[in-house]
Amino acid sequence: xxxxxxxxxxxxxxxxxxANNGDLHPT
Length: 27
Hints:
The structure is a single chain. The protein contains 1 helix and no strands. With about 25 residues, it is mainly α. It has one domain. About 0% of the residues are buried.
């Protein structure tokens, strides 16, 4: 797997973790 693909997947995972933690949409 190319490094840019890994970076993209890691970025998506980080984004999901932030969204799940509510950091992107604090109440």
